[in-house]
Amino acid sequence: MNLAIVGVTGMVGRVILNLLEEKKIFLKNLYPVASKKSIGKKIFFKKKKIKILSIEETFSLKPDVAIFSAGAEISKKWGMKFTRKGTLLIDNSSAWRMNKSKKLIVPEINGKFISKRDKLIANPNCSTIQLVMVLYPLHLKYRIKNITISTYQSVTGSGKKGLDQLRNEEDRKKTKKIYSFKIHRNVIPHCDKFDDYGSSKEELKLINETKKIFSNKRIGITSTSIRVPIVGGHSESINLTFKNDFDINELRQILSNTSGLILMDNIKKNIYPMPILCEENNNVFVGRIRRDFSKKKSLNMWIVSDNLRKGSATNAVQILEYLIYNKFI
Length: 329
Ligand code: 2RA
Prior knowledge:
Helix content is 33%, strand content 23%. It has 10 helices and 14 strands. The radius of gyration is 20 Å and the shape is globular.
């Protein structure tokens, strides 16, 4: 298989490379693609130096599969061009996620709905992936009516510029580059642009993408997305109301038995998920599970996951593995 990674020098692109090295995916050729300033430079992959290509050159090479992680603009401009030439595209940007003809896939949840007709598969937003990984098995058993989410998103969610800003502001010796707001010793209730009603695009992604993945427009979902001064890992405080009541131990057992989830839930021993415990791990961690006694059939939880891994690169590579395993490529 000839695989192109578009956006290979970005934070997610680099994690995709690491994952491909960790996994036993046979590649005939790897085409690393980046913006003009990186063309000609080399990346290391499986102990070999490989030259970075332009997207135009890669387009002419007709890769079998391409993973795009270079932003919505590139995906909108090039996505369908590649698929029309026969490339199967896994897109990590927001460009196609809510397009009715494109599937929005978390393999463990709705991979089974991928068909041979699907030539462009959208990877959900990082904060959505970790949310649905935890909620889906509970939805199957107890039917979710309402979800309230508050997210605490690391600076790496806004790319290298977010990380550079945090590092710059933490280092007193570094010259201060003026940013709109300081993130060091601060939290910013603003992830992506606001709509006319005061919700941010990040908050709307959680709502709309979750409903699409669950194929359920009736679930009531509301969210608040916050940027916090940490390097790796998005955290989410979740409040759920179900149609059916639940037994808390049975519910914990369901989560514990779900592939891709790790239950960290023992407050007597101060065991609960934290970003520093989840960095560079491909799983989603869940804890602080407790009944919400303010209303019937309701629950609070805390979930954490590395947004560059299961939140982006890992899910994209798992889609690739799913396609290979099920002989779509
Ligand atoms: C963020 N989830 O954290 C968005 C995009 N990666 O900013």
